[in-house]
């Protein structure tokens, strides 16, 4: 095998860039193995001149046989094949027209179904929006009621607290008067 680059120069370059001699040799060895493997794979896909000439001769002999068969077919069955081919062309055109008609029908049905589904979805979204709005209103009402109740309870608590404070003050003043 011939190598297409100087392995010693590559080792020296790697050593100059900070690799040890052993590391450089291992790297170059790996590169050589990779290149050899790639070349082997390329050679496997290639054919030799002899193989190519043999294949060409085989193709040429097949072509000669086909030419002979064509001459025989042309003389005996070519007109029958031509008429059969014309019948098949007509049938294909009819089938093509039928298929196009069916495709048109299916497209129209699909458009109609799609439009119906769109309207159903829009109606469903509108119902959901109405239900959501009603739910929001109920929640807002409940929150307002709870705030009102909370304020009422706050005021009650302040009243009780003030009453308790004044009661304690009164009792304390009473004890204070008793002691004095």
Automatic annotation (TrEMBL):
Coiled coil residues, start to end: none
CC terms in the record's Gene Ontology section: mitochondrial inner membrane
Q: Does the keyword Mitochondrion apply?
A: yes
| GO biological process terms, semicolon-separated | calcium import into the mitochondrion; positive regulation of mitochondrial calcium ion concentration
Gene3D superfamilies in UniProt = 1.20.5.340
Family the UniProt entry places it in: Belongs to the CCDC90 family.
Under PANTHER family, the record lists:
MITOCHONDRIAL CALCIUM UNIPORTER REGULATOR 1 (PTHR14360:SF11), PROTEIN FMP32, MITOCHONDRIAL (PTHR14360)
Q: What is this protein called?
A: MCUR1 regulator
Q: Which organism is it from?
A: Rhipidura dahli
Q: Where is the organism placed in the taxonomic lineage, from the top?
A: Eukaryota, Metazoa, Chordata, Craniata, Vertebrata
Originating gene: Mcur1
């Amino acid at each position: 095998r011939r190598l297409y680059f100087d392995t010693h120069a590559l080792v020296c370059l790697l050593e100059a860039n900070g690799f040890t001699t052993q590391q450089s040799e291992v790297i170059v060895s790996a590169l050589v193995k990779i290149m050899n493997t790639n070349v082997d794979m390329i050679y496997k896909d290639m054919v030799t001149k002899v193989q190519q000439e043999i294949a060409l001769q085989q193709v040429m002999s097949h072509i000669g046989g086909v030419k002979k068969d064509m001459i025989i077919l042309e003389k005996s069955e070519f007109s029958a094949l031509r008429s059969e081919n014309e019948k098949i062309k007509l049938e294909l055109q009819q089938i093509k027209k039928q298929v196009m008609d069916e495709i048109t029908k299916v497209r129209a049905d699909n458009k109609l179904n799609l439009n119906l589904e769109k309207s159903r979805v829009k109606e469903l979204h509108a119902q959901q929006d109405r239900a959501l709005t009603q739910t929001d209103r109920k929640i807002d009402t409940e929150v307002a009621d709870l705030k009102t109740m909370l304020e009422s309870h706050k005021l009650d608590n302040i009243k009780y607290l003030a009453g308790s404070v004044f009661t304690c003050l009164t009792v304390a003043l009473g004890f204070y008067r008793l002691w004095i």
